[in-house]
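I have been asked to look over a protein record a colleague put together. Alongside the sequence sits a line of tokens, each denoting a local backbone shape. Please read both lines and tell me whether the tokens look consistent with the sequence. Take the sequence as given and treat only the tokens as open to question. I have pasted the whole thing underneath without changing anything:
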Amino acid sequence: MLQRTIDPLSRPFDDEFDRLVRQYRSGHSVHVDFRAMVGNSSAAERFTHRFHPYPAKLLLNIPLFFLNCSQFISPGGVVYDPFCGSGTVLVEALVRGAQARGSDSNPMARLITHAKTTLLSEDTVLNALENIRSNLPRKPGLLPEGSIELERWFSPKVRLQLGRLLLAIRAYTAGEVSAFFQVCLSVVVSRVSLTDPTVPVPVMINPKKASLSLTQRRRRRCWLKERSEASVYEIFEDVVRENLERLKRLAEHVHHNCGVSITDDARTSPGRQDVDLVISSPPYGSAQKYIRSSSLSLQWLGLAPNGLRDLERSSIGREHFNRAEMREVEVVAKSSAKLLDQIGKINPLRRQIAATFLSEMRDALKRTYALVRPGGHVVLVVGNNMVCGRVFDTQRYLTEISKDLGLDLLIRMEDRIRSRGLITKRHSSASVIAKETILVLKKS
């Protein structure tokens, strides 16, 4: 299956990987720089990667490297990402000519990934846009129900326009086209809400915050004014046309018969034992609030009919446990036992969160293992974080769990990245991820 247009970043990396394996000695990570090896494309406008904002995106240089190693995948092979987020791995898998599969418990992530990997013709998108523009209702109807007070996060003018657009999208689009326009509307939601754009989760813009400089206060007053008076329709049309151009660039490199499938939970994902390569960045243990970061869009689009708390409960790495949910959790990685005991003496809730995270990760990796064919490979991009002031060595624990399942570690690599703060910082456990560990495993 040949690519329609040559991708300048797609070149064989077999020799580089073989060289790294020769350098590896058990117990000592090999230091790498994927930006230097592949090309510093992380900030480039590449295909559909900038379709929609999403927290803690995987550095696309990493999947680019492994997808262009013939040891792992050939055109027509099957690539799976059990924690696909906004679809970085799946987009690059399609460009490689592979069959792309993904799972994610966040319905917003699944919607974004679906829109980013579904090719639509220019006429289809523009005709639908004209239908939406020509049929905006005069009345927006009721605001979408949910646990969030949307009146607090959007000015009256903006709420009115968003409501009209939502009704028109639902009335005049369907299927794959509807997914495209819903994702575009979600981009608009993030641009016109009264949330601070410097914070990944919804936090109200506060120009009076004492720690801000005069320049920062002035900037935030401008943000409030611009977002309160925004022309939602104009922004929406700009987003639609920008994302259409991104889809057109992707279409130049992807054959229409490359398959994409997305399911909702890595622990129960259906499929055959035919996966050649898994590339994934698992969630951080109790560090990232993916549902909260998507909360405004989830409510506007009606993707959380039972409430955000139910969605959070289905997420690996969740933080909220009520008393009835507090229970003894089996230690699934022996190397974590001592640390979990220490954490439990300081904060039983944090122990519950950490132990549950490892138990649920074991379930997800067990199901992933079952989908990988013998001889297939699993690449995990893992970031450690702090829990109660102690290093939670996620890469070590996931390595142990993977080995227990029957995966052999071929190489452990470390890539220093530009400091990436966790979504939620706590006084007792604030941390910044300075490096990522890349585990390359093989199914015997």
Summary: The first strand starts at residue 30 and ends at 32. The longest helix spans residues 348-371. The two ends are 28 Å apart (CA to CA). The chain has two domains: 14-106+254-443, 122-247.
